Amino acid sequence: MAVRVPYTTPYDFVFIIVKFISVGLWMSFFGFLITGSNLGDIQFADNEFIKFASIIIFLGVFVTVSIFAHSITTLQIINTISSYVYVRVNLKTEMSFSEVSKIKEMFVPNPTGQWQPCTEVTDLPQNQRAEYLKQVYRQTFNI
Fold first, then answer.
1. Is the pLDDT of residue 125 over 90?
2. Residue 50 within a domain
3. Which of 20, 28, 84, 130 could anchor a disulfide with 100, C-beta 3.0 to 4.6 Å?
4. How large is the greatest C-alpha to C-alpha distance in the chain, in angstroms?
5. Predicted local distance difference test score (pLDDT) of residue 40
6. Is 125 a domain residue?
């Protein structure tokens, strides 16, 4: 049964928030470096041109890092980690990180925003859960 949600698992939202916080902290650090201020005495440069250039450079770095933070690679890593946590914690299934990375597409929304929660796996015995998830993956994606 497919479910339509904005995030695949509750852990996705947490990882995205952590990503934004880390980008914000790095931007603050670069802002202090670029503007010539230190953490103890926040004081900008005296020259107006240097202030303007610092702001432009800061915004350029911010946009560049933001684009990088939203890159496909970052999202794939977040999807793999959140799928792994979902399988281990919510579905209580013993699977390695590499095994989960192969079936993570089940727990990532497709273009219509649907994903496979596979909650029925918790009704199975512990030793059959991993194989069941792999079988559902093969059937879902015709592999």
1. yes
2. yes
3. 84
4. 70
5. 47
6. no
